[in-house]
Amino acid sequence: MVWGCVAQTAQAQDETIVFTPQWTAQAQFAGYYVAEAKGFYREAGVKVKIEHPSTTQPAMACMRKNQCQATTLQLCQAMEIVDEGIPLVNILQTSMNNAMVIVSAKNQDPLTQKGARVGIWSVGFGQLAICMSIKDHLNYEWVRFAQNINLFVAGALDATLAMSYNEYYQLVQAGIEMTHKNVYRFCDHGYNVQEDGVYMERSYYLKHKDQARRFAQASRKGWEWAAQHPEETLDIVMQYVNKNGIATNRVIQRLMLKEVLRLQVDRESKKREFRLRPDMVQRASTLMLENQMLSRDITYKELVGEK
What we know:
By secondary structure, the chain is of the alpha/beta class.
């Protein structure tokens, strides 16, 4: 097994891909855990080491330091990073739908709360919410939080961003009432932009295309197996959760897995397509350009390594 930086060699098949998901161990990454636990990576002839990021060093920082060769990123995040001058290639897309919601306090419509104090992740993920706030002249005051719902539950925020597979269920467990009035789902209002995909730096990808392909295929097989065997998958997820000392429980992880798998099904084809959609890339690029979050158009061909 390889820890930290992996020295490049001429023979890609002898290298280990250090894969660092963008967050701590949870069912959001179940397919990769399955691929490792069930031997799918080994069968594909690719060595994979899954290492989660720390609170002080996010996944992308690991990649920039050459401490990992693959990571998961939301599409909007990846586009921002490419715009900053770090070419990335999407080798596998798992999310086909957007999971972000705004939950408002006291059963109020988030679109009527101009100037509201709204929680947003300190590590990013809120690009579409910022675009919506600007477009609808809401002038939200964004309040950064690390990883939990405490500020909102304590009444310090008027509303908070949440993922439908994560913080949404934490809010439900905390007793927050969720209705069609106080929950704004971005996917239902013209912001259905794909989220999680697996990315490599372009320079590494170009030197290791076959290795990247085999890693992506085995990861996809892991997700397909997870969809067919959810309870066995949860057993594997909980092993990772416990190993990493994550404060969660099987009930929350079951809800997360069910929602993550639902989000992988394309609304139009009703299938798990595992592909980046050109129209969603264009939608995200247009929205972010209009709101000065990108300096140039980021194209589909660029993101899949064809340009």
